[in-house]
User: Fold this.
Amino acid sequence: MDRVADGEPPAGGGDGTDGSSEETGPNDGAKDSALRETFADFARGVPTPVVVFDADGRIVRANEAVETRFEYGSAVCGQLVERIWPTVRVDELQDLADVGGIGSDSDHGVWMDRDGNSLTFDVDTVTVDGRTAYAAVIHDVTGHVAAERRREQFERIVQTIDDGVYVLDDTFDITMVNDAVEAMTGYDREELVGANASKLASEETLRKAAAVSDSLIESDSSAATITTEIERADGTVLPIETRFSVYQFADGSWGQVGVLRDISNRVRYQETLTALHDSTRELLHVESRDAVAEQIVETARDVLDVSMAAMYLYDAESNRLRPAATANVGDTTTDHSPVAPDDGPLWTAFGDGERLTDRSGEPIELTPRTTVPATNATFIPLDEYGVFVVAMTDEDWAGAGTAELVDLLVASAESGLKRVAREEQLRVRDRERRERNERLRQLKRTNEIIRRIDGAMVDADSRTEIEAAVCEELVESGAFAAAWVGRVEDGDLTPYAWAGDATGYLDDMDLSLSTGDEPPSVRSARSGEVVTVSSVATDLRNETWRMAAVRRGFGSVISVPLPAEEGLYGVLTVFGTDPSTFDESMQSVFAELGETIGNAFRAVETREWLAADSVIDVGLEVTAPDDPLSRLAAGTNANLTVEGTVTRGDERWAFVRGDGDDPAVESVADGITGIESVRSLGDVGVDLFEVVLTAPTVAGTVVDCGGRLTALTVTGSTATLEAELPTTASVREFVDALARAHGDAELRSRRTRTDPTHGTDGLRAALADRLTERQRDVLRAAYFSGYFEWPRTTTGQEVADSFDVSQPTVNRHLRVALRKHLQLLYGD
Assistant:
């Protein structure tokens, strides 16, 4: 080589005898020769670099390995050791020779050459001719130092990781453990290293590990995992997971190196999760929201070990959160009353739909009136159903998986509440469907009964027969327990017909309309409205009629007024065996039945009247200042003559004629209550008007009481009238009815006469049987409005307008009615 390190090569020859930079003595040549011979003997065959340096640290000889390794060659001779290897101190090398010499076990130290390689020196002292020199064997330990550093780094990593690391030999003796293994097991390292793994693991675990190791060796797999338990120094059991691999020793045997992981939190989490699932699975069988709340709170207490848990459910009707279930509330100032809007964190969490956490410390305030002994609490909204409150210590909250478990519990609560709500809706719908079907069946059955009653009423010849037929048909149908009909007479409700077990009940009843204890029948007679009692058994002690009904097995009752034209004919009362027999649809059916019975009574009375050979003519003077026609007469300062009336629904039409030239009827009528409209009939100068009335009138009362108005003149507040009554009618009751409805009524005349138009063979009786109600109404309206006058005072279109029908329809009704009249006159 031409250079020494990165400097110029030393002057002189490569043998180290020439070119020395320092002076030499006269005997130096001989001495150097001796040293070289000694070095040659020492270094011959040594494959590692070897140098010899004197006491001053000057290199006097270097073997070929120095040239091969350091590329210095013979130029190194004569140079100072510290120049060639700047980090090396000669005195330290000399100390190494004094300590042990070449081949000793002493620490030789590590130095760096100019290229950054790590070197060690084995130094020994040699003596030649009494002169001390030093022979040094130089070792390049760069790879070893790097490996040692890596080993140290690995050991540092092993000692700092949380998982335990261990090494086992082929007999499962422990050869190495890290600090984590000590912490996990409770044993010191000295107690573990050298001991057999059976100190920690069971025989079964070791057999399993041996089998897995054999499998790894045979399959050339890299690693395997076993989940098991180890026994700690204190005798407790620790669940662990170990992942290990196998490695081969120089003698061909196999050992294990592995990692131990404490999975107690994981196992605890899985056990808790399983318990949570088992508990919440029971939610599939609960049928109410309160039961869901109790199950969730109980699970929170038993599985999560909470400090406190509670569930509040939202009540839409009261707009409150009500406490449904609580656990571990302890001795508190808790007022478990419903929570109103904006009343503390419970409502805040529910209203905002977001979780709310209170870490203010004990006690936790749920509402201004409610506190619980907990250090913190979380308020979790449950969708639209309510709020779940759970309190734990900070340590419990920080536990592995605690937050996730709470979330699962909340999800189970919401799912359970939704399922219950859905099933409640289905049950309600199913119940409503069944009830609707039952109502339809009952309604159908009732309609069949009504049809039979209608048939019986058609065949009946008297009011008494109708009353008896109605009661018998209702009871014989099997749908009702009893029925009876009472007539209003002299301030009492007098029973006239009954069926079922009504006799005994009626015997016990006071049916006076002035009694304080009013049965449904009396209330209906007094009010003129349908009265229904769904449950007879309610309030038994305060109303005596209820006990009498319950004693006979009656569960519900309905009383229906039987309307007459003026007042009531009476009341139909029907008892059911079950409560709520008479729902809204049944009430409507019976209300219509009451109307039908009233119409049947009127039809019978009409037939009886028309079939009679005689009538009673009466003349009266009635003081009726509130009669709309009286006010119209006063307003026009004229005498008004009522030609006739027609009833249509709630309206009554009066055909009125004035006695003046221009009574100004239409303009005056606009300001009179009870007059819907006024229409002039015919041309100008014809004083005939159609007056549509909505308030009671004298003319209407006469018709409602079963009379036929033959003449009526209204002057101011007085109405003078003549009417026909059937011979079966009570003239006194007729006069009293007019007096009750309008004012003073004075009977001016009365006589009974024979009328050839009456009787079974009379024209009126025949027409009553042949004309429909609409045909009679249209014919009367046309007659009284002047349609048949010549010239006509009203047209067919005007008559049609009064009935809100087309003119062809009116024409058809009139032609049919006239044809039936003419058939009576000219037919066979």
Summary: The mean pLDDT is 79. The first strand starts at residue 50 and ends at 54. Residues 402-459 form the longest helix (58 residues). The two ends are 165 Å apart (CA to CA).
